[in-house]
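INTERNAL AUDIT FORM
Audit reference: QA-55
Scope: verify that the stored structure record matches its stored sequence.
Auditor: D.O.
Record contents follow.
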Amino acid sequence: MSLATMRQTDEPQGTICALERVTGIGGVFMRSKDPEALARWYREHLGLRAFSEEVDETWWQEEGPTVWAPFPADTDYFGRREQGWMVNFRVSDLDAMLAQLRAAGVTVDDDVQVLDGNGRFGWASDPEGNRFELWEPAPEALQRPSPTT
């Protein structure tokens, strides 16, 4: 068992136990000036089944990798300084998604970045100015790593 999967307990002599782990992202919650309108926007522009007072449903996403990464407090990566988070959505065709968003009048960054072995990235903003990232994973990025011993 690696140190990443173990924790010390408060029991005598520092007994080692398996670390309890989360199993995935259960929800993303954000403040909004108009929650119904923003939920509708995400449904209409990204096809995301956003929960709201109008729609009582959850989004069952496709299996795939998820990155959980704290960034420095002074990062410009999220766009506005007061934006404390950014969601990355996996997409199967980045160019088609960016074109769809542009055609709908959504603010889309012109920059598309490619990271070898990871995939292609683009960015856009919702109507309240929250920047989000779109990721078209490279095939190798979708391969689940072998379990470590």
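Auditor finding: record pair retrieved intact. The radius of gyration is 19 Å.
Action required: none
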